[in-house]
Amino acid sequence: MLFAHEGEKHEKSTKEDSTHLEQSQEDYSHKQAQQEHEHDEHETEKVTADLDDFPNLHPLMVHFPIVLLLIGAVLTIANVVFLKKEIDWVITGTVFVGALGAYFSGRTFHPHTHDLTAHAKQVLAQHDLWADWTIYLSIAGFVAQAVS
């Protein structure tokens, strides 16, 4: 069997160890109590924001058309099974409003930022690329849905 000091007894000062252990436990208890207090304060505060608090409406406006486009895609897949004309009209309307909303979110409510770091500019450029693809594909999806 392997032992920590190869079977030799190691003398420790039990008084120092117990003092250190008590201090560690007190520090941990104090930190835990402080975190619980901060957590309770955060839960009791009501977080609200007005539209004036946002520099632009882009983050608020972009989610609605994206969800509409996703719902349109799911309905299109479902309609492969059901083949109902009524579902086609719902898909056409959903994709139209989603494409229109995506266009306005990307063009009108686009975040106009300045004083960005080089890395932030790269991230924003990637974001713009994906936004353009979303707009173009949603318009193509609407045209395809309208033709069908």
What does this structure look like?
- Helix 2 (about 60-80) runs antiparallel to helix 3 and helix 3 (about 85-105) packs antiparallel against helix 4 (about 120-145).
- It is built from 4 helices and no strands.
- With about 150 residues, the protein is an all-alpha fold.
- Mean pLDDT is about 75; it is low at about 1-5.
Beta-strand percentage? under 5%
Which consecutive residue ranges, at least 5 long each, have pLDDT under 50?
1-5
| Strand element count | 0
Give the % helix.
over 70%
* Topology as a string of helices (H) and strands (E): HHHH
Task: Give the overall shape.
Answer: extended
DSSP helical segment count = 4
What does the average pLDDT come to?
A: 76
Summarize this structure as a short list of keywords or feature phrases:
148 residues; mainly alpha; extended; disordered N terminus
Break the fold down into its secondary structure elements and pairings.
Elements (H helix, E strand, L loop, with lengths): L13 H31 L13 H25 L2 H23 L10 H30 L1
Helix pairs in contact: 2-3, 3-4
